[in-house]
């Protein structure tokens, strides 16, 4: 058993699952693997995410040390989000998740339909 931040875990993988669990966290991290993104760009890339939910998920990812929020001293304010060094370490795992997802749905070809969204 591992105690971390006042919670007990059976395995460190449970900690990682807690870090990336959330409806939009993996999608956000996946977008940030391509480079820094401004909030409005993220909203366009994730059109089903509400502004409130996106803000909450970004704050959680930032407080967990997976992303960095960079504020530029200009008017109007410019804010970019990018992966931290810890977040960069997740990039190969995100790729593996996408690859597995592709393999998985290919196992059920009659159940797959694609839309014309430009999202990854």
UniProtKB/TrEMBL annotation:
Top-level taxonomic group: Bacteria
MF-aspect GO terms: DNA binding
PROSITE patterns: HTH_HXLR
Secretion signal, residue range per the UniProt entry: none
Gene3D superfamilies from the UniProt entry: Winged helix-like DNA-binding domain superfamily/Winged helix DNA-binding domain
HTH hxlR-type domain mapped to chain residues: 11-109
Keywords tagged on the record: DNA-binding, Transcription, Transcription regulation
One of the Pfam families matching this protein, by short name: HxlR
PANTHER family: TRANSCRIPTIONAL REGULATOR (PTHR33204:SF29), TRANSCRIPTIONAL REGULATOR, MARR FAMILY (PTHR33204)
Protein name as annotated: Transcriptional regulator
